[in-house]
Design a protein that fits this description.
449 residues; alpha+beta; Jelly Rolls; Heat Shock Protein 90; 3 domains; five-stranded mixed beta sheet; 13 helices; elongated; disordered N terminus
């Protein structure tokens, strides 16, 4: 598979180039050039393969591999600048080196071959510029997200504290008012205070069906005793009481003060309930900010011991808005080992794969996430029940800027990033697809190479 470089010189074109260059042989692992060298030659691969990579921090991320008939070094020759990449032989290779002076002489003497180089170099330059623009946008978005996360966390925590304090203040205020409420006797006030304590103790969440059944029962009970706004009262009381508990209250205090007593209880529960809702909402904001910080590895070292399962869960939480309505299954092996990796980069991998799976099923279908150990590797599989990847484009699926989406809907960089990140961690990503099931398999070494 020629990925991502698919511009190949013919044997006739290589023969025309041979007088202008010098043949060089490379053994496995030998560098043709690196990012510290000024590249003043164009290199045509005659045999073997030359891997192009870029050093980013401690990781060497693979960009692609040149096979026989392909070339590298052209942009540096034209610009006269240092390379930002490195080229390494991954098999015994022969390379034709054409220095800058010979390149310009070749352009004058063999214009048909020069046209091939110029058109391909122009195409690569456009792709490089497009990639840099995309990276600049992503970097700006990352800085904005980091600042926003910090700014949101403090007011969210303050809001949660204030809501909890408001809930307690409302409860105390209502109890204090009850102590001086002339509508009730001392025994009736004690019964209502006890009922409020029961409500706070019984505030566990019910499933929607059980809650609806309880509301109906309470509504019928209240309606039979002449209450107004029956269903509003039932909705407030149902989270804490069943109808029979109010029946016990009626037997304890009598029918005459019952309407006022239930009204006081409902008003108190509504105030404390609203304060609790605010507290839960603020806590949810803090939780989402925490998830985002873990997802981006904000304020943490780029590389460290990474729990792949946690990264997958954080990614699913970040993409929850897009996955709503889909059946998402998780199957994680127990005691899955951690791996030495860049957590933020791996989360980009999970995001691209899960996001693509969601696009494939188009709102209706299944997404499966598996994580397990296979000898010395941790393997993650992301599958979907979509229509599958067409056979004619499978060999190009990891190419930069290649996308099957409509114009404006995809950049074609997602799976290229997946391939480069996984390769940079010493791993491998593969695709298996057929109608009804597409499965991406990411294999990462437990011990960093």
């Amino acid at each position: 598979m020629r990925t991502p470089f698919d511009h190949v010189l013919t044997d006739e074109q290589v023969a025309l180039l041979t007088p202008f260059g010098i043949e060089t042989r490379l053994e496995v692992g030998e560098l043709l050039f690196d990012e510290n060298a000024t590249v003043n030659s164009l290199y045509v691969v005659l045999d073997g393969q030359i891997c192009i990579s870029r050093l980013e921090g401690e990781h060497e991320n693979e960009i692609g591999t040149h096979l026989p008939g392909e070339f590298t070094g052209g942009l540096a020759v034209l610009t006269g600048k240092r390379s930002i990449h490195r080229a390494r032989a991954t098999s015994p290779s022969r390379v034709l080196e054409i220095d800058s002076s010979a390149f310009y002489r070749m352009a004058a003497e063999v214009p048909e071959v020069a046209d091939f180089f110029i058109s391909r170099l122009a195409s690569r330059l456009r792709e490089t510029q497009r990639a840099f623009r995309q990276l600049e946008k992503m970097a700006a978005l990352g800085k904005l997200s980091a600042g926003l996360a910090h700014e949101l966390n403090n007011p969210a925590a303050a809001g949660q504290r204030a809501a909890n304090q408001l809930r307690e203040a409302a409860r105390k205020s209502q109890l204090h008012a009850l102590e001086h409420d002339g509508r009730f006797s001392t025994a009736e006030r004690a019964a209502l205070a006890e009922l409020l304590r029961e409500a706070e103790a019984n505030s566990a969440s019910l499933d929607p069906l059980a809650l609806s059944t309880r509301e109906d029962e309470l509504g019928d009970w209240l309606d039979g005793r002449g209450f107004e706004e029956v269903w509003a009262l039932a909705s407030t009381l149902a989270a804490s009481f069943e109808a029979r508990r109010l029946e016990d209250l009626a037997a304890e205090i009598g029918e005459e003060p019952l309407i006022d007593a239930v009204g006081w209880l409902a008003a108190t529960l509504e105030m404390t309930g609203l304060a609790a809702d605010v507290s839960k909402s603020a806590a949810r904001i803090s939780e989402l900010v925490g998830t985002m910080k873990r997802y981006t590895y904000m304020d943490r070292a780029a590389t460290g011991e990474i729990d792949v399962r946690k990264g997958l869960d954080d990614t699913l939480a970040v993409l929850a808005h897009k996955l709503g309505g889909l059946l998402v299954t998780r199957e994680y092996e127990e005691d899955l080992p951690t791996i030495q990796a860049n957590g933020s980069e791996l989360n980009q991998v999970w995001t691209s794969l899960i996001d693509n799976a969601a696009d494939a099923v188009d709102g209706h279908g299944r997404i499966g996430i598996r994580a397990f150990r296979d000898e010395g590797f941790v393997v993650v599989e992301v599958s979907d029940s979509g229509p599958g990847v067409p056979l004619q484009v499978r060999d190009r699926i990891f190419e930069p800027f290649f996308t099957t989406k409509d114009v404006g809907e995809g950049t074609g960089l997602g799976l290229d990033v997946v391939r480069r990140v996984v390769s940079g961690h010493g791993g491998e990503v593969t695709l298996r697809s057929e109608p009804g099931e597409t499965r991406f398999r990411v294999q990462l070494p437990v011990h960093a190479r």
